[in-house]
Amino acid sequence: MHNLHRALGLATTPSTTTSVFDIAKQRPVQPVTLVRPHAASRAARFFVEKFPGRSMYAVKANPSPALLQILWGSGITHYDVASIAEVRLVATTLPDATLCFMHPVKAAESIASAYFDYGVRTFSLDSVEELEKIVRATNHAEDLTLCVRLRVSSEHSKLSLASKFGAAPGETKELLFRARQAADALGICFHVGSQAMTPEAYANAMERVRAAIVDAAVTVDVIDVGGGFPSTYPGMEPPPLERYFETIHRAFESLPVSYSSELWCEPGRALCAEYSSIVVRVEKRRGDELFINDGAYGALFDAAHIGWRFPVELLREPESRSKDMPFSFYGPTCDDMDHMVGPFYLPADVQAGDYLEIGMLGAYGSAMRTAFNGFGSDETVIVADEPMASLYVGDEREVASNVVTL
Ligand SMILES: *Cc1c(COP(=O)(O)O)cnc(C)c1O
Fold first, then answer.
1. Mean of the pLDDT values across residues 383-387?
2. Does the pTM of the predicted model rise above 0.85?
3. In a domain, 401, yes or no
4. Among residues 272, 296, 318, which one ends one of the domains?
5. Of all atoms in ligand 1, which is nearest to the CA of residue 267?
6. Above 50 in pLDDT, residue 400?
7. 361 in helix, strand or coil?
8. What single-letter DSSP state applies at residue 368?
9. Where would one find the signal peptide in this protein (predicted)?
10. Strand runs (DSSP E) across 162-224, as ranges?
11. Could you tell me if 219 and 183 lie in one domain?
12. Mean pLDDT across the chain, nearest whole number?
């Protein structure tokens, strides 16, 4: 175990006994990232067993090699990559994984290297220019799976992905037709936006897919419903994932595609949100504002920039007996923007020197950390206790019931 931890760049704390309270007792000066391999593994097995098709992991949500190994070990064989660096990372970490290059706007050099150096055969596109680029860069390869990305609504999602990518209805007919001629297998893909709060988002997008197939009258081999599967956060508790899977399955079954066509999805957030959390120290209290040692330039980008609320818990023993009240946070950098408005509910007597756990940071939080202004830390510890909330266990850890929802 020692060597494994070292190889993965993790702390060598014994993984079976360490709990979040043990970490706080050590009074770390820097923020500490806690990882929960069992939570990521549980999420991956859930998708592998219950999604009615193939689940590929969207690597951008959290590219940690340790996490990639866990997902691979739990049955995730396909990986959605968006840059040549992600191609290299996954190819090096998981040499037998299948990579799909699902960014619709790529450098020709990246396409060529992915195809010739790393055996990538699946590419997405949303324009005729990109199609021609892929055909040229792969030297007119005849073994390509080409996925045409449709533009769909993000109205049911917390983070829009509706403006940047995707062919508009007027463009899809010609694009599907031309991609069909260049491809060995033709796919249609979309992304409903991240943290889709209702299965309706997928049902509506599948209607766009149906219209596009009927309009272009092409044979489609792959339907890829993209990412957007939610996790659970204060004030954002989605319906069970099974409901999403049922809706998608029903819509897929009624599409005019051949019996041998495949259904794919590309979850990022849903596979890794529960994987990690952080332990931070309160450095100062000013009324209902807490100055903590991680923030917008660390793991809390979404909390600062889009007002995302993450679950929080005061790590004090014996437990505080004060009632909860709402707080906002300031991060450690000298920048006014390093502010997380919350509200984050904590006992009213929280004070400088206290430690907090901030949960559900495995997706995007960990991936977007920087070292701006000399803050941040790579210290990572494996813990065995449950995440602060979970979509995959009925019986959540006790603190989950303290999470205030508005
Ligand atoms: C970001 C992204 C995903 C993952 O999205 P989540 O909302 O994290 O599930 C999947 N596919 C593509 C093409 C993406 O850009």
1. 94
2. yes
3. no
4. 272
5. 9
6. no
7. coil
8. G
9. none
10. 185-189, 194-196, 222-224
11. yes
12. 92
